[in-house]
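Sequence in, structure out. First:
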Amino acid sequence: STQSTGITSAGEMLDYLCILSTGGLLLWHYTAPGVCLKGSPVNRLVKEVLIKARGSVSTNSWAIEQYAVKWLRSVEHGLVFVAVYQQALTLMYVEPLLESVRQSFCETYAGRLAETHLNADYGDYLGQFEKVYAQEEQAAKNKVGGARMPKKPTPNETPSGDDRRVDQSAAQSPPPSNTAGQISSKLAKLQSAKNKGGDGMMTRKNKNPKPVERSKTKEKRDWGGEKKLTKAQEAALCDVQGSEAEGDIIKMAKMREEVLPEGASYESSEEEEEPAVSEAGSTGIFSRLGGMIASKLGQTPLTSEDLQPALRQFCDQLIRKNVALETAQAVCADVSSQLVGQTLGTFSRVAGAFKDALASSLERILTPTESTDILRGVARAKKAGKPYVIVFCGVNGVGKSTSLAKICYYLQSNNAGRVLLAACDTFRSGAVEQIMVHSRCLEVELHAEGYEKDAAVVASNAVKRARDEKFDVVLIDTAGRMQNNGPLMAALAKLIDMNSPDLVLFVGEALAGNDAMDQVKLFNQALEDNSVAAQPRLVDGMVLTKFDTVDDKVGAAISMAYTTGRPIFFVGTGQRYVDLRRMNIKKLVSTLLK
């Protein structure tokens, strides 16, 4: 029968055992060779049971589909030990095994666990786990051994006493361990069985197989059985030192294909520049301006009263494109100040003068007074011998973590140096795992300390680690929070005060319109009110997400820039890492003037 690291037979084996933090981080896991869990029983256990019922140290059981799941908590170290096996099996050693694993793991790594190094490497625990597994399985066999009927000897067999001695010596001898080649051979057999239409398990052969007629119009289903494993995936499955399982590897590969397709780059995904509207080809509101002030053409200089009908049309157009009322009125007032006193002789000059004045006003609002070149900031920090620290903040669900990952890829593509991601959203369930997926796709280091921790301290530890390990950039992900949530805004102000980042970026939605302006305004107010610094640190700039979904209603960018006096560093135009653009001021103004 198939052996699992020389511990137990395939018919009575434990499918999976893992060690999790109470926050859901996976510290270590063991998967029996050839086993692929279906339906993610551990994930469902965490979501449906552990998160809803946190209790004291006790052994618990749960059944889900074909699996039986048992777990044991360690409150002192904040760990959960989970075992998964087939419901059809009766494994007497599971509960003692969990207790033994808990004791041995906590004793072996007491130092690391005391320092909350949850993202440390625990792969060397496998050898000790095998010993504990073998001991507990043998102890369970010994308990039920007396109830078994003795095997009837045949004439060629040794006497029962010798037979017992042979069995004892065999039990005491070390079990044969599987080599990578043996496991590869088993994987090949499983793969071959799948290719023949089976499910990877031993099945009875049909003596009279009949071909199954299928409709020619029906699309062929892909059950995953016809895909051959790559050498890298097979090597990862054969590695018994705690490497990722096949499912994780394939999921990660698919994730990378989605967020970073092969051949994608900033150059290949750049949008073409749209030509500016010429005076001769001006349409819409510009073509109607001459009629509004026809009596003044070529006669006397324009006055504020003369311009009011046209400016009201301008203001309405800006509001229709998501510019806030306050901002639209300020823009029209600036246009009026530029045109009052001019004498315009022709209709074309009227359209051109209005367009130029409006474009000038909008460009003044959007043009930053300080550099928005992050790469230059990183280079300056390198010369100073310190990491460049960026904090991402914003309300819930606007795409902070995705924007962080895009900027990380932007830095990598421009050879900005080593990047460290900091998982400082210790409030929202699943936030650490989300940023962990990005770190694996981007192949960068992640600093995570789990949930229910002080985000300011986690960020401080990440910055300290970056200094010690010579990272060039630290990107800090924070929890999404509404602008009127006092405790969370105070926590954000504390994080910024304690760590003094080089850049604080507010992430907002281009779809939000006036709400985005109110959000960033109240964020700044809350940071100022909750800061203990002599000069409170406010938002340094903005990132606008979902910019590809607003068509020509791009007014949120104008409103946010006008309200804060801060520039827009990037706009997000999709879900891939390359879907990030620097703000193109001329193109945005051209869109507003259409």
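Second:
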Amino acid sequence: MDLRRSAQDVLRCDLCETPVPPMYCDICHIHLCKACVGEHLSEFAKEHKIVPFEKRGSSTKCLNHSSKICELYCEQCDIPICVQCTSSTEHQGHTFVYIVNILEKQNAAVQRDLQELERFIFPKYQEISSNIPVQKANLNKSLQKVASDISKHGEEMHREIDVIIKKLKSDLDEMASKYLTVLNKHEDDIKHMLSDITQTTADVRKLVNSDDVGLVSAYKSRNAEFRKLPPKLTVTLPSFSPQKTDKHQMFEQFGSLSELSIEIEEHNYTLRTEHSTPERSLIDVPQIITEINTDYTYAATVCCRSDEDIWIRCNGNILRLYNLQRGLLKSIKTRSNHCAADFAVTRSGDLVYTDAQNRSVNIVKNKEIQTVITLLGWIPCGVCSTSSGDLLVAMHNDDWETRSKVVRYSGSTEIQSIQFNENGKALYSSDGCTQYISENRNLDICVSDFGAYAVVVVNQAGKLRFTYKGHPSTTKVSFYPGGITTDSRSRILIADSDKNRIHILDQDGQFLRYIDNCGLREPIGLCVDSRDNLFVAESETCKVKKIQYCL
């Protein structure tokens, strides 16, 4: 056996057997000491990629050019590429970064995820899991108490029944005593009469054989008295008439158990740590990554179904889904043939839209349109799907005088209505202007209220947090907010079509900056993808621009 290559030996250079080689060829997959690197690179017949041993495996061969190594990364296509790929028409106009930077960023993200899993998520699940035995113990205690209460109530009812039985028997004994007294008296009266009749019969028998004129002449007949027989007693003895046993009524009278209620409640919080999302700081000069030329004559709203698929709404009855690479994927016509007021994408990827004409909120599933909410007296406008799966719908009243409100729905059930602040003052305008709505990562509800010239932000409970009416330095200039969206850092982005710019605020309403350098022409609809790239629908050009504004 070669002791130098035994399982107990240290790693060695594949060319000179030097122990612990610090370098590695990612193409040839061999270990190299520093002295042998030059010798290995001298093999010009094939390409080499020498990296530190710790970074081995970081090189990837190009799928299109098998002899080349991927040193770059195309941000638009989201794939590693080689230098030769950059000149192809497929990647024309795309943005390239060094793949090493991407790997470092991804490795950092992996480390953050691991840290979050180990320090926050796993301990939280352990805490929730440890609470289940406590719930089981409480279950047994609670059920034992309920069973004891049932037994005690049964004993009480038994005692009540015993009292009733005792009372009935006592009444029966009293009736028997009364009847017996009457019978005894009746018997005594008859016996007394029998005694009189017996004596009278004896006296009359003597007179029949007597010659005593005085006795015979003094005889007074009592037969008339005796002919009147004693009264006949007719007695109806008591009987027991039991009520028919109604088991259902007995259950009702005895009591009942409440229904077992098991609610699966989503945690109304999200684990948030300093490592939960990338920092993604604002960059000095936002830049356009790509543009989509739509077939519309007016682009109003844009919404991401994924990082590559984008829904776009115009002022007509057609909603269209575009792919950044392949163009138009499909079109959906609204059920009423009228323009959709707004739309959003649910957590499951379904499209939901509001229809002001028939006062409805509709969801599109597999090209089938289902109406989930129909309003009376109110007209829906803005809509968004929340992190919990609820729908938030901004709406204004028919009379245009009653203040607008935001209603939260779980399915088709209204579970929250937001209209006034804690002092009873209206939060929103009443003139029926379009209102866009978005839920922030901190669960705040952000409404772009064109009629109030303001963005109104309330917390999850509906309590006012702040109102934004434009940058403080331009308060004398009218602010006409349009579309609104939020990003992974809870920043709020607002379209200002009148000034052709985007306002960016932090989650507390502090102004951060404008995006006003991308040649925007009447920006109206906004959304961000999972990487915080901003999509802007321009009503004047009918284009949708993808803008990078943070890293």
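Remark: The two ends are 55 Å apart (CA to CA).
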